[in-house]
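Protocol step 4 of 6: structure prediction from sequence.
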Amino acid sequence: MSLKSPCAEDLRKVHAEITQIVNQRFLITTFAITVFGLIVAWLIPKNTPPVGSDLGLFTFAGSILLILLLLGLYWYSHSLKGMLRIFTSYLLVTEASAWEYDWERYRRTKYFGFTKAQTSIFLLLGILATSFPCFLAGVYSLNLRPQIGLWVDIGVGIIYFVLVLGMGFLGFLNPEPKAKEKWEKLRKEEGAIE
């Protein structure tokens, strides 16, 4: 069965879904900042530790947990972007929106839009989360021990940075071409749009 032209009610539903997904992605970014603040506050020692003592595994574990939570939130936002592209690609393929056609073309140019702004915030939060144990050690004059905690924290931070940078700025796992390709395939299966 070929794709059918969307009616006015279909377009209203699709646009409502798009608006909802964009809002959810904004809320995820806001939630990530909140989670960052809560976990950092949780990791700050309540009493001043003795100078020269070890930072301890708890702080490294908290930093790693924070990085993993941020990665999960970013991945969820990226998945929502995939859903968003399913809807916007449908509007493109059915030729139901001149805006989506122009917006797709504009996205191919260099611009700093929502995904890149969101990615920048997540990159900053990831850098701060990874370096937080070093910051605490510097403020309280503590030793960065156990060393395994430091190296795991740095390793997880690097993986986080590469994944978020790749998805947000370099097009890793870009959902748009696949979504458009699937709609095009459906459109061509039985001819033109009815």
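Step 5 (inspection) to follow. The radius of gyration is 22 Å.
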